[in-house]
Amino acid sequence: MNSPQGQQMNTQVPIEGRPAILIDKEGAWFYNGLPVINRQILQYFYQLLEIGPDGEYLLRNEQESCPVEVQDTPFVVTALWPSEGPHEQFFIKLNDDSVETLAMETLSISAENIPYCAVKQGRFRARFLRAPYYRLAESVQQEDDARFFIELNGERHYLQVT
After folding, report:
1. pTM of the model
2. β-strand 90-94 against 75-82: which pairing, if any?
3. Maximum CA extent, the chain
């Protein structure tokens, strides 16, 4: 697989059977155990990222594909803030530096109390990091012992427990 600078990259699966590329639960990328810190390479990887037919993550270009081990989700929410003006909504910033409107209907909470949402036109799931999670929690209201919601524009958006 060629890097943005046109250099050939060794993306073969290491001998122990694990992919050479890993995305940890905090959204950090690693290649053979070393952090990938070059923003151009990371942006290139995000462009190539897809989910294969078996649910596995891949980096795929025209010539080849490379498996990616993902500990939780490839995208994480790094920031959250409310909109200004009469139409209430939340915006989220992802670890690829993109900004999206939070799709409230996709918001869920895991059994471990970790919020998730769909991103990239619903193609991927994103995990909330701690700071945006706490910011989101400021807006959560409790209806009864087991039901929680966020109210925006007079509509209650119930948090799904997954």
Report:
1. 0.85
2. antiparallel
3. 57
